[in-house]
Design goal:
single chain, about 0% strand, mainly alpha, bMERB_dom
Length: about 150
């Protein structure tokens, strides 16, 4: 009877010792998982900040473009008046005025193309942000335990 009790005690001790190692492994994997999640969140936050800075820079450039376009528009109106002879400045000949007007049109077209490029980049940033949010939602859904799913 003593031997049976010792045997059962030793076997229960072995089971008890193996359980903590399992919980230790589970704790370790849980820690790794949390650390990985934390690192992933940090990377996501950094990417969001980069996109935000890019978007702000694009917004500033768009505002500057708008100001330059307005200035060109005002100058263009003056040139057209001079070409029509409505202005009193008779110092410039018509060829020179036409040359300035064509340069003005070229500059305006260049600004409009650049504005279009900036708007496309801004839209691309919005799409990247949307994709990032969708990926985050997917990660959250995938992290839910199988029982809860």
């Amino acid at each position: 009877r003593k031997q049976a009790t010792e045997y059962s005690t030793s076997s229960s001790d072995e089971e008890f010792e193996s359980k903590p190692s399992l919980t230790h492994k589970a704790k370790r994997t849980l820690r790794r998982r949390r650390k990985l999640e934390k690192e992933t969140k940090q990377l996501i936050k950094q990417e969001e900040l980069k996109r935000l800075h890019k978007a702000q820079a694009i917004q500033r450039e768009l505002e500057e473009l708008e100001e330059r376009q307005k200035a060109l528009e005002i100058f263009g109106v003056q040139l057209e008046r001079e070409l029509r002879g409505e202005s009193d400045s008779g110092t410039k000949d018509e060829t020179q005025l036409l040359h300035e007007w064509f340069e003005l049109v070229l500059e305006k077209n260049k600004l409009m193309r650049y504005e279009s490029e900036l708007l496309i980049i801004a839209q691309e940033l919005e799409l990247e942000d949307h994709q990032s949010r969708l990926e985050q939602k997917l990660r959250e859904k995938m992290a839910i335990d199988g029982k809860s799913k």
